[in-house]
Amino acid sequence: MATEIVDVDKAARLDPEMPLDVKSDRLANLEDPDEGLSDEERAKIDRKLLWKLDLRLLPWLSLLYLASFLDRTNIGNAKIDGLSKQLGMTANQYNATLTIFFVSYSVFEPVTNVLLKRLRPSIFIPSIMIGWGICMTLMGTVHNYSGLMAVRWFLGLTEAGLFPGIGYFLSCWYRREEFGVRMAIFFSAAALAGSFGGLLAAAIANMDGVGGKAGWAWIFILEGLATVVIGVASFWCVYDFPDQARFLSEKDRARVVRRLALDAQSSAEHEEFKMSYFWASVKDWKTWTGAIVYMGADGSLYAFSLFVPTIISELYTTNFLSGYSSIRAQLLSVPPYAAAAILTVTVGFIADRTRQRGLCNIATSILGIVGFSMLLGCQSAGARYAGTFLGAMGIYPAIANTISWSSNNIEGVYKRGVSLGFIIGWGNLNGIVSSNIYREADAPRFYPGHGTVLAYLVVFLFGGSIVQYVLLRRENAKRRRGERDHWIEGLDQNEIELLGDKRPDFMYTL
User: Which keywords, in A-to-Z order, does the entry hold (predicted)?
Assistant: First the structure.
């Protein structure tokens, strides 16, 4: 996975669309700890550095997201193990407990990346984890609908900072052609959470009656306590941005900053927050096209992850063998998630190598469209179960790829953070829709739910990806023709740098 770190002349060859004098100006004031070394020696050092970053950052951050996604979606597993019945909730009340999570989750997401930058990742991320772990544990102690609603509100509030925060955080460590596969590895934890969640819920459900509590309550309690433990450990396992990371030597910190500068990024540098960065994000059309594309993926994701246990249990009871049990339904939800995890990483790798993230989004969205068309139109249970595979494989890769696509094309420390907050926050706000489209009255075919997800995939994910791809391609053509050069007339080099992705030499990733 390593990418070569090279001198300025070779950098120009790696990224021929950026003028050599721009690269030279950007690197002139940066320390080069490997000055005088050959390209081969630099490449060897860079491979070791990238491997060190991967080992220190990806495994633990992926574990955090696995815990996060498990905690927000395990209510679907708890439902088929008797949650609604024991708390005396109606179908609409159950959907309301899903909805309220997304209200607080989405409202607070746009500001969390600013807090992440101001408070430092090593403090902010562990703190919110402990908070939502406590909320998760308390979900296992509620006795009625009102108590569950209250805890779900605070669960959304405390979880709001993790996904946009880590997506933004990782983008500040890796070059553009390295980021996609790492984001895919990180996000594959969500698919693994769906797979692992079914297995875990099946095992924990056997504790039914222990301590006078139902099996569904133990799902919340044990998974919540595990999150608290992981959160405490994160004070030592989550690191800060490259210029402050404890696990890097002074030379390695300089190398990370320099390799980002070679990639036309300022993400590792110090930058004071100004409201102008906020407004730059709000006025940037890429923020809103990114939000539309992500809306198509995220709205579909939450519908799928929250209701797939219910969908599969209905398939099982109405079409498969007799002798239904909730545990068998939990286990049937595992394979589609496993397939989605594999494809998520594969698409991340391909997108990094080809730098065609838009085409990757379009291709995977077609899989999802076919999958949900099968759920809508096929009569046999086997074909509809196959549809859940294609549905998962069409949705999950698009999440990581869309975040990578937006991160690649938004430059500036705070602007990228704010934009990702808006994009992810708007996407998650569509969880409100997703929480209310699968109704018990529509079982076992769930036509309104499947139809709504299909519309999201066709209009927003597929259609939005095409629109953003075309617009980015047109803008790159204008910059190559020099039609944006007037943006930097009369500006010195420092002022040009502050333009971020508005620099005429900045070429967008398609």
Answer: Membrane, Transmembrane, Transmembrane helix, Transport
